[in-house]
């Protein structure tokens, strides 16, 4: 395996994503949906623009993901305070169940991945990844 930084970063992300989807596809979730469920678990009632930014998903791609989630009964879109110009996305009861599954799955995989690292290594890795995200984020982009 090539040991360059860019290769290892892409490989780690790809392997982690594959492990996540192996577990969550059994629950009927498809690519993009776990990220949205995780975001909405902390920001229920968000507008689509904020979900796209928070999940680092192209808004056009998110439209399709949300449509499929709505068909599965995971989310519902409704206006806030009667303002029809801006629809907010809310988790349904089924959506909250899947969100909790996503959260447990992420916590289990995170524990598995980090098990071989000392606490100081974990802290350094987390801090380093945070700095990488900040360096790559576009101006004004908020990492949530």
What labels describe this entry?
6 helices, 3 strands, 3-stranded antiparallel β-sheet, Arc Repressor Mutant, subunit A, 144 residues
Biggest sheet, in brief?
A: 3 strands, antiparallel
Strand order of the largest sheet: 1-3-2
Q: Please name the CATH topology.
A: Arc Repressor Mutant, subunit A
What number is the mean pLDDT? 91
H/E topology pattern: HHEHHEEHH
Shape: globular
What is the CATH architecture descriptor? Orthogonal Bundle
CATH class wording: Mainly Alpha
Low-confidence runs of at least 5 consecutive residues: none
Radius of gyration, CA atoms, in whole angstroms: 17 Å
Total strands: the figure is: 3
Counting DSSP H or I runs of 4 or more residues, the number of helices is 6
Q: Based on helices, strands and strand pairing, what is the structural class? A: mainly alpha
Tally of structural domains = 1
Strand content: 5-15%
From the N-terminal CA to the C-terminal CA, the straight-line distance is 32 Å
Helix content: 55-70%
Describe the structure.
By secondary structure, the chain is mainly alpha-helical. It has one domain (16-135): Winged helix-like DNA-binding domain superfamily/Winged helix DNA-binding domain (Arc Repressor Mutant, subunit A). 63% of the residues lie in helices and 12% in strands. Helix 1 (5-24) crosses helix 5 (93-114). The two termini are 32 Å apart. The mean pLDDT is 91.
């Amino acid at each position: 395996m090539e040991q360059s930084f860019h290769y290892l970063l892409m490989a780690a992300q790809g392997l982690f994503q594959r492990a996540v989807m192996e577990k969550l596809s059994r629950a009927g979730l498809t690519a993009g949906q776990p990220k949205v469920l995780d975001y909405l678990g902390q920001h229920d009632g968000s507008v689509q623009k904020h979900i796209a930014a928070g999940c680092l998903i192209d808004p056009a791609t998110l439209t399709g993901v949300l449509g499929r989630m709505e068909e599965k009964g995971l989310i519902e879109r409704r206006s806030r305070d009667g303002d029809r110009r801006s629809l907010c996305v809310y988790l349904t009861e089924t959506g909250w169940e899947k969100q909790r599954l996503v959260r447990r799955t992420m916590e289990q995989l995170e524990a598995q991945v980090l098990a071989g690292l000392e606490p100081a290594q974990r802290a350094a890795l987390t801090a380093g990844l945070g700095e990488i995200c900040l360096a790559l984020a576009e101006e004004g982009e908020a990492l949530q």
